[in-house]
């Protein structure tokens, strides 16, 4: 009987040990627009902090949207914090607006930059972290560049665009629906002149509906290659070879803009940061498969850059 009790006690102790947390987790309210999750490693006295900025659309702190759940940014944050680096990831302001049932159609790209700057200033004022890095994924790459300038200790781009968004969309239309290329160019010509237009085919309505045009007009004024050139801080550029949204050559364009930056191309990694062995069907399915693990090279590349 004593042997059984001792054995059960040993199992309990081992179970408790295995569940010991390597980091603390807390929700932080930055302001009325920004809420996020802060992870801090428990065994590091004054860790570095990575602020993770989500990509396009109503993307939340975990990298998810309605009907799309992959937990890409949550897995990235936990992977970094399990290796001694604090992380803060936050919902885009539009996520909170949707949750509250009060969507502001006047939200501009510049508002996302303001939010990222506010997050950075908030944590700089706390003076609890050794160095603070901005990490932007997809659209968040350009947001992070603009926010990091002269403020952050380093910048990390993952799947960031290497051209202005009008050129990116024009390129995508040329590759997927070339019959609409002239219509696309005509719309962007108007937007460059600061004029919204209803002169576009119905097939392009999801791109160019009137309520979106002011946002695109605001976004397209920023050239990522030119902006990254102005960064005087350490820069890491990461892209995956299986990214069907952001091709590898965009990372090369960013590298050209900032020759002193570090460029890491991860074989088989897709846009939601997981390895893809098969075709585009597997790739698109992975956007909604949260059980998939991150590409093994991703977290080590960021750790190496920071440490």
The CATH class of the largest domain turns out to be Alpha Beta
- Average per-residue pLDDT, rounded, comes to 93
Give the SSE order as H and E letters.
HEEEHEHHEHEHHHHHEHEHH
Outline:
globular
Give the helix/strand class: alpha/beta
Radius of gyration equals 21 Å
Q: Which superfamily, in CATH terms, is the homologous superfamily of the largest domain?
A: Alpha/Beta hydrolase fold, catalytic domain
Beta-strand percent range: 5-15%
Q: Outline the biggest β-sheet.
A: 8 strands, mixed
Helical content class: 40-55%
The CATH architecture of the largest domain comes to 3-Layer(aba) Sandwich
Measure the end-to-end span: 52 Å
Strand order of the largest sheet: 1-2-4-3-5-6-7-8
Number of strands: 8
Structural domain tally? 2
Ranges where pLDDT stays below 50 over 5 or more residues in a row are 1-19
Number of helices: 13
Structural descriptors:
alpha/beta; Rossmann fold; 2 domains; eight-stranded mixed β-sheet; 13 helices
Explain what this protein looks like in three dimensions.
The chain is of the alpha/beta class. It folds into two domains: 230 residues, 3-Layer(aba) Sandwich (Rossmann fold); 57 residues, no CATH class. Helix content is 42%, strand content 15%. It has an eight-stranded mixed β-sheet with strand order 1-2-4-3-5-6-7-8, with helices on both faces. Strand 1 and strand 2 form a beta hairpin. Helix 4 packs across helix 5 and helix 6 runs antiparallel to helix 7. The longest helix is centred in the middle third of the chain and has 18 residues. The radius of gyration is 21 Å and the shape is globular. The N terminus is likely disordered.
């Amino acid at each position: 009987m004593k042997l059984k009790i001792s054995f059960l006690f040993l199992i309990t102790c081992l179970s408790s040990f295995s569940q010991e947390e390597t980091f603390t987790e807390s929700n932080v309210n930055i302001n009325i627009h920004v809420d996020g999750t802060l992870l801090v490693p428990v065994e590091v006295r004054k860790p570095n902090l990575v602020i993770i900025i989500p990509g396009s659309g109503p993307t939340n702190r975990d990298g998810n949207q309605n009907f799309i759940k992959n937990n890409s940014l949550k897995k990235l944050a936990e992977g970094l914090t399990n290796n001694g680096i604090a992380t803060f990831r936050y919902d885009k302001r539009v996520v909170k607006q949707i949750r509250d049932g009060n969507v502001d159609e006047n939200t501009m790209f510049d508002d996302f930059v303001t939010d990222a700057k506010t997050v950075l200033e908030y944590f700089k004022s706390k003076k609890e972290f050794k160095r603070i890095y901005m990490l932007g994924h997809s659209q968040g790459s350009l947001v992070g560049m603009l926010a990091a300038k002269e403020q952050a200790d380093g910048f990390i781009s993952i799947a960031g665009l290497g051209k202005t968004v009008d050129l990116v969309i024009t390129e995508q239309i040329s590759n997927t629906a070339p019959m609409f290329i002239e219509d696309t160019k005509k719309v962007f010509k108007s937007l460059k002149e600061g004029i919204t237009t209803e002169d576009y085919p119905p097939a392009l309505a999801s791109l160019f509906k009137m309520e979106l045009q002011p946002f695109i007009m605001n976004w397209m004024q920023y050239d990522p290659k030119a902006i990254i050139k102005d960064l005087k801080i350490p820069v890491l550029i990461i892209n995956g070879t299986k990214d069907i949204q952001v091709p590898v050559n965009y990372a090369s364009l960013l590298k050209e803009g900032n020759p002193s930056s570090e460029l890491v191309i991860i074989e088989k990694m897709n846009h939601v940061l997981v390895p893809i062995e098969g075709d585009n069907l597997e790739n698109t399915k992975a956007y909604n498969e949260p059980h998939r693990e991150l590409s093994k090279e991703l977290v080590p590349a960021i750790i190496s850059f920071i440490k």
